[in-house]
Amino acid sequence: MFQELTEQHSEVKDIARNNPCISLVMPFEPKMTDEEELVKKVESVVIKIEKALLGIYPEVEVGAVVDRLKEVLEGLNYFTHKKSIAVFVSPIIDKIYYLDMQVDEKIIIDGSFAISDVINCKKQMHEYLVGVFTGKYAEIYLGDTVYAVSNVLNNDWAQREAVIDGNTKLKKILLDKFSQSSNHGIKRLLQAYKLPFFMMGSVNALRHFKTMKHNVKHVVKCISGNFKKKTPVELQAIIQQHVVDWHKVIQADLISQIEEAKANNKIAIGINEVKQMLSQNRGKLLIVEKDFICRQKKAALNGTVNHLSTDDGFFYIKNGLDELIEQVLENGGDVEFVDKHDLKKYHRIVLIENFDPDLL
After folding, report:
1. What is the pLDDT of residues 234-267, one digit of tens each?
2. Under CATH, what is the fold of the domain 259-359?
3. What are phi and psi of 351, to 5 degrees?
4. Entry pTM
5. d(CA 232, CA 260)
6. N or C: which end of the chain has fewer CB within 10 A?
């Protein structure tokens, strides 16, 4: 049985009449939102939760758990640079996580919600970067699957054209310097935006840029052609056919991150290596096959679950994978799910460290 709230993206489930448990996932971005407005939003969520609980549980039980929820939310950090929060409250425990991800609001008032379900609350941001390369300039555009791309970097080399003409050797040297300069700008953008990256340009231009160190980081696809005089709207039309299946774009981007991390020995592959890396407080991106969650029970993780029994109140930790996800989120990391078999050669689960290839 489900009890839906009227506000978009909100949902309340009431499955069993047991001790009330609250799971709350909501946007919380103080650096982008006025504090007074954010406080009012938090207060309205509490009212919504209390009303839903009173329709299921005795008033005395509701009062105890709502008081605990209010106490937790009154202690929110309004100086955080995170984007959202996940809050879990029962009569005997409470826990809050600050998340670096944009989410849709979700409210669950029973113990069915697991911390792994937080990942499914992520907003699907269909954004990407497009690099247009010639021998004279590089332009980087930020786009999405709805609006036309917009320029975020223009590294113009056209003023050097007169020097380059007629001197093949000098042209090669200057093109290398131009590529290095553009590569630095691309690297900064990829670090800032962390989005799938498409490269567009002539065959020669793409070949040259791909030889420059780290230019291929997060490259989902190279698209060859003459794009010198294309407007942002025209570029959007060209790229559209490559982003229609956005799910495949994201999966390809994650695989490229895995391959780069493996090449730099900054990855844990398989459950045992992942657990070892997390025990050292390392690892910022956990990538796991979706059905791994369903089939891997506590026993499958070699008995690593300690305090995680729902009988002990930790209702949001259902199995050993939830424990791993909790550790990653507590360390300020992120989690992504991929399709079945996508990580077959990586034993279905990997953990990637943060690293700067230039320092390796």
Report:
1. 888 898 889 889 889 999 889 988 998 998 899 9
2. 60s Ribosomal Protein L30; Chain: A; (3.30.1330)
3. -135, 125
4. 0.76
5. 30
6. N
